[in-house]
Amino acid sequence: MATKEGQLGQLRRELAEVQTLYRQSTEHAAVQSHLIKQLEGLNLDTQRVLRNQEEAHTADATSYQKLYTELSQCYQTLVSSEANLRKSYQELSSQVTQKDQHVTDLQAQLQQQEQQQEQQLQQQQKLMAQHTSYPSSNRQTNFKVVVSELSDAALQKSSPESDQTSTRSAGPRPEDKSLQCRASGSIRTKQGAPVQRSRSLSPASSVELRSGRKRRAEQRIQDLEELLKLKMEENEELRRAHDKRRERLCLIQTHYKTVREQLKELEKSNGRPGGRMQRAEPWQLRQENSDAVWNELTYLKNLTRKLSTEKAALEEQMDMLRVQAAMDRATVKELHLCLADNHQELLHNMAEEHRVKSSTPKKPSVSSEQMEQSFKKIQQLEWGIMSLNKETERLREGNEQLLEDNKDLALKCRRLQASLDSLRTQEAVRGEAAQAQALVQREQHCNEIMALEAQLAAFQKEATKLHQQLLKLRQEVGILRAARDFYRNRVAGPVRAGGVVSNISSKVKFKTTRLRGPLRQSSHRAVNPDQAISWQGRTPSPTKDEWEDMSIDSDSGEEYSDSLNSVPSRKAPHRQHANRKSVKCSSITNTKAPEAQSLRAQLAQDDKQQEPWERGAKGEKRRWRKRMLMKAQRCSSASLQQRVESLQRHVEILQSARKDAVLSAKELRRANEKITAQLSSLTEKLSSSKQLTQKLTSDLAGVEQQKKVLQMELEQWRQITFPQQPAPPPPPAAAAAPVNAECSCQCRTMPSPPNFALQALEAEVKQLQAKLKSASAEVTRHVAANKALRGQLQEKDDTLRQLQDKANHTERDVNMKRQLVEDLKTRLKFLQDMEKSYRGQLEELEKKVKTLSEEATNRKALVDSLKRRLNVATSERKQHETSCTKLKEDLEKKDQRIHALQARVGASEQTLAALEQTATEQMEGLTQKSSRAMEKLQRQLGIAYSQLEQLHSFIKVLASEILLDVQEVKQQLMKRRRLRQANTVAGKGGLSAKSMIKAKSIAASILNMSENDLADIMDTDQGTEAHSQSPAEQEWLDQLDHILQQKIPSAGQLIEAVRVKMKERKVLTEELATLTTPVSEKA
C-alpha cells in the first residue's frame, strides 16, 4: 500500500510539473502573441505616420509647384499678350502709314496726269488756232509737220526713260522690249504713212481712212487700258504677296522671341536647383514619365514644325503663282496687242499699195484732232506702263530681300531649335541619372532591409534553439529531481511504520522545501507542506508506475515550452489553473467546438479524481488519515490502474494541445517574417532580441546553478545509499538509517552542529526500540505480510539497478549539455558581434535621418523663397493689370481704326474677286489654246516621225541598190576577165586548148561526171571567190545602220559612206571600160 501511495504521489508530482510546464508554455505563447500584436500595431502606426508625412509633404510641394507654375504662366501670357499687342499696333500703324503714302502718291500721280492733260489740251487748242489762221492749201502739210514734231518729241521723251529703266534693271523683260518696239514701230509707221502716200483728190477714200484711223485709235486705247488694268492687278498681287511675307516675317520673329524666352527660362531652371515643371494630373496622363509618352510628344512637335514649314512654303508658292498668273495675263494681253498691230500693219501696207496710184492731196478734217488726242493718250498710257514696270522691278527687289531675310530667320530658328533639343536631351539625361541614383539607393536600402531581416531570422532561430535547450535542461533537472526524491523516499520508506517517524520526517522535509523554494521557484510549481507530509510516506515503484524516461534519447520525445518572463502563482487552486489552461489552448489553436468540449470533459474528470488533494490544508489531514485506513483495507490494483489510465489520457491530451501550440507558433513565425519587412520594426525587434539573449543567459546561469546543486545532492545521496546496499542491516539499524539520512539532509540544508544531530538520532533510536518491542508481539500476525514485503524488496532492488543505469545515463547527458552550454557561449559571442554591427548600421541610419532633416530644412527655405517670389509676382501682376487696362483702351481705339481699314480692305477684296474671276476665265482660255497647240505639235511630231522613217527606209534602199550595182559590176568584171583569159589561151595556140579539153575529159572520167557538170563546179568556185568579198559589204551596211540609229544622225558620215561605195563603183566601171575596149578592138 505504501509503495502504491508513493507511486501515486510521484505521479501527482509529475502531473503537477507537467501542468505547470503546460501553463508556462501557454502563458509564453500568449505573451509572444501579445508582443507580436504590439509590434504589428507599432509597425502600422509608424507606416501611417510616415505615409501621412509623405502625403502632407507631397501635397505642399505640389501646391507650391502649381502656384508657381500658374503664376509663371500668367506672367508669360501677359508678357506675350503685351508683345503681341505692341507688334499688332506697330504693324497696323505701319500699314496705315503705307496706305496713306500710297494714297498720297496716287493723288500726286492723278494731279500730274491732270496737269499734263490740261497742258496737252492747251497745246492742241493753240495748234488748232494756228491751223485755222493758215490757208487751206498749206493745212495738210503743216499738220503733218506738227504730227511729226510731236512724234519725235514723244520718242525723245520715251528714249531717256527707256534708258533709265535699262540702267536701273540689269536685264529688262522681253515683254517691255516688245512694248517699246511696238510703240516705236507704230509711231514710225504713222510718221511715214503721209510721206509715202501720194496725193489723191478722191473724197470717199479720205473719209474711209479717217473712220479706220478712228477705230484703230479707239481699239488701241481700249487695249492699252486693259493692259493697264492687268499691270495694276499684277502690282496688287505683288503687294499682297509682299504683305503676306511681312506677316510671315512677323510671325517668325514672334516665334524667335518666344524661343529665346524659353531658352532663357530653361537656362534659369538648369541653374536653379529646385526648379520643376508642372506635373500632369493622373487623369490627364497616367504614365507621365514613360519613354512612349515623351517620344510621342517629340514626334508631334516635329510634325507641327514640319507642317508649319510646309504651310509657309505652300503660301509662298501660292503667292508666287498668283503673281506669275497676273504676269502671264499681262503678257498674253501684250501678245494679243502685238498680233493686232501686226495685222493692222499688214492691212495698212496692202491698202498703201492700192493707194499709191492716186496722187491727189488729202484735206485736213475733224478726225485729225481726234487722232492727235489719241496719240497723246497713247503716249500717256505708255508712260504709265513704264512707271508700272519700274514699280514692279522695285517690288521684285523688295521680294528678293524679304526672301533672303526669311532664309536667315529660318537658319536662326533651326539653330535655336537645335539648341532647344540639346537642352532637352541634357535635361532628360539628368532626369534619367537622378532616377538611376534613386533606384540604386532604393536597392541598397532593400538589400540592407533584407540583410537585417535575415539577421533577425537567424537571431530568432538561435533564440528558439536556446529555448529548446533550456527546456531540455529543465526536463533533465526534473528527471534529476525525481531521482533525488525517489532516493529520499526509498531511504525514508522502511522507517515510516508509525506516526512519530512521519511527523519527524515531515518537519525535516518541510524545512528542506522551505530552504529550496527560491531555487525551484522558476522551474515548477511549489508544493504545500501538508502534501509533502502526505507524499513522503509513499515509496514509488518504477516497475508498477510505468516510469518514463524524460531525457533527450527517450522514446516519448515530449518537449514542453516554457516562458521566460512568467512566474507561476502558488496560492491559486489547481482547478482554476486547469480552466485557464483549457481556455488558453482553445484561443491559441482555434480548434473546433467538439474537440474543445471533449478536452474540457476529460480535464473535469481528472479534476474530480484529483479533488482529495486539492482542497484546503486543514481538511486534507483528516481526510488523509481516513483514506490511509480505508485504502489499507479496500485499495485494490484495479483502482490504481484506472487512475494511471486517466493520467495517461491526460498526458495525451496535453500532447495534442502541444501540437496545436506548435502549429500556432508556426503561424506566428510566418506573421513575424511578414512583420520584419520594415526598418522601424527591425530596430524594435533588435532591442527585444537583445533582451531575450540577456534573459537566456540569466536562465542558463540559473539552470547551471540548479544543476550543480542537484549534482551535489545526488553525490551525497549516493554516498549515503551505496554503502547500505551490500549488507542489509537488522531492523533497528534499518530504522536508524533513514533517521541518519534525514538528519544528514537537514545538516546539508541547514547548517547545525553535530551534537544536535546525534541527540535527535538517539531520540529516534529510543522511539524505534519502543516500537519494536510493541511490534514483536505482532510479528506472528504479519508473517504473511513479511513475505509480501520480501517480494517488494526484490522489486525495489531491481528498481535500484534501473535507477543506477538511469543515473549513468544522466551523467552522459550532463556531459553533453556542458558541451551545448559551451556552444551557446560561442553563439552568444557571435551574437554580441552581430549586435555591434547592428549598432553601426543604426548609426548610419541616424546619419541618413540627419541628412534628410537637413534636406527638409533646405526645402522649407526654398518654399519661403518661392513665397517671396509669389509676392513679387503678385505685385508685378497688379502693375501689369493696370498697364493692360491702358493697353485695352488703346486697343479699342486701334480696333476702331482697324474696322475702318477692314472696310476698305473688304471693298478692295471684292474688286480682287472680280479680277480673279476674269483672270480664271482668261486662264481657261489660255489652257484651251495651249491644249490645242499641244495637239497640233503632236500631229506635227507624228508627221516628222513618219518622214524620218521614210528617210531611213530610202537611205537603206539606196544603200542596198548601190551594193547591188557594185556586185553586178564586179560580176561583169569577172566575166570579162575570164573571156580575156580564154582569148589569150586561144591566141597562144591550139595545143594548149586541146590539152585543156583533154585534162577536163580526164578529170570528168576520174570523177565519173560529165564535162558540163565539171564546168558548173568550176563556175561556182569562181562565184565563191566573187562572193568572198560580201563581209566588207555587210560591215558597210552595219555602219550605215549605226549612223541612222543615232539620236541625231550626222549627214557628213552618211555622205562619206556613200561616197566610198560610189568611188568603188567608179573604179569598177573604169576597169570594165578598160576591159571592154580591147575586146571590141579584137572583135
UniProtKB/TrEMBL annotation:
Q: Which InterPro entries match?
A: CNTLN
Residue ranges annotated as compositionally biased, kind Basic residues, are 571-583
Q: Name one GO cellular component term.
A: centrosome
- What residue spans carry the Polar residues bias annotation? 156-169, 520-542
| UniProt feature, compositional bias: Acidic residues | 546-561
Q: Does the keyword rRNA-binding apply?
A: no
Q: What is this protein called?
A: Centlein
Per the UniProt record, the source organism is Solea senegalensis (Senegalese sole)
